[in-house]
Amino acid sequence: MKCSVKNCQGVRKFKFPKRMELRKKWLKAIRRPDFVPRVGDGLCMNHFRAQDIHNISTEAKYLLSRLTLNFGAVPSIFPWQESADNPPEANEPFTAQSNFSNENIEIEKKEACCPEFISTTESPEQQSTTDAPEQQNSKFLAEEDILQVNLQLCEEEIDAEVEPLNKSVIELKSDMHSDEEPVYLKKSIMMQTDSCSKYNVDNYKHKPVQLNHFTGFNYQKFKTILYTLSPVMSHFEKIEKDKKISIPNQLFLTLWKLRRATCNLELAEHFSTDNESVAEIFYTWITIMSKTWSLIDMWPSRELINFYMPHTFKNHFPKTRVTLDATEIKIDAPKNSVLKQATFSTYKNANTFKIIVGTTPGGLISYTSSAYGGSTSDRQIIERSDLPSKCDPGDVILADKGIMVQDLFAPYNVTVSTPTPMVSGSLPHKTVVKDRKLSRHRVHIERLIGLMKTFTILSKKLTRDLLPLSTDILSVCVMLTNFKESIM
């Protein structure tokens, strides 16, 4: 869009400020106080002083990807100011006689900026009254010496004024032609360093299938995830400087490893770095993502549960608060014999970590327990959790038949509905019908757990180096699952 200053053909660079007080100052400066700016209206950079514009981060001190105005900057450079500052001169410039040299003629053209020049120069009438040629020549020589001194002083003054202006012009030109002057690139560190990476997330803006293959999300969802971490972005800026990988590409690397369970060597090759850097980036991001997202209360109120509850739940299980199920993730057997025994699961016949997952009727994963060894029972995990205190009196919990915890929730007036255990050879018809309805509504949690395990790092064995991060990895994958489209 064009600049909003009248008769200016520049391209809009800076939008009108949102603050009404500063916006009025802008409108007054451009002599359009009654103008109502639209969303995309703004001014070009030609109306701002060089000191009003910066492209260096005030905190991290690296080059920004675009020019930014200083806080409270007001446009101050306009054509009408230039005409007011430089009025036309009343007197014509002094013209020397023909017997002056060309150099002196050039000197005389600068008399307007040197008052001393005029005071030391005689008029043509005075020169014509001289009778003796010798006196005239000596006078010309004396005047030449004076003119040379005045010229030198004048040039020094001009250079002193022009030098800072030249610097400003060079800086502005370098910003406008960043390809020609690499010293003043308008790019941040992430743009300067990622050019050597084989994979850059910005290359997948319009490739949703490929980006979904690597991360499980499209570009818009990727940006949303990155935005939720903006309060802790300063933790990643140091890695950006040290490892030469931009913050978006650090998240790209982390999601790639979660989604595809790619080894560090392969990721190091893709992002033009080394194994240690990949491990450090992944560890930092998983830890900070887990701590940041753990501050979000994912346990919805009763009103929200009812609002998003599907009709099938409203018809058959209207008081359902959460559906519970346990899931296990295989791990490499620990070297310590005690840990090996604690993590061995007889159900999976392997060393595992176990967690309890809770989902709302609307398809949101609202609860996850900490990770425990595979030998821990479902009841023991719930006993050590705060789940009973989260429920309100009258709530109903749907659970698998292996989760027998009715007595733990009874003091809170919370009902736990599980399939009826088989005692004799057959069950009554009403019981069978009821259990089928229960199983039909419980199946949604199994689908959500399956969606969570599309992050291949959870469906493959967790390696020993990732065991300390197991709880954080699980909580991050759960939150990322909530970013996906609802299955309900």
TrEMBL record:
One Pfam family, short name: THAP
InterPro entries, sorted: HARBI1_dom, THAP_Znf
Cofactor: a divalent metal cation
Recorded GO MF terms: DNA binding; zinc ion binding
Annotated ranges, domain THAP-type: 1-78
Record keywords, A-Z: DNA-binding, Metal-binding, Zinc, Zinc-finger
Full protein name: THAP-type domain-containing protein
Organism listed in the record: Trichogramma kaykai
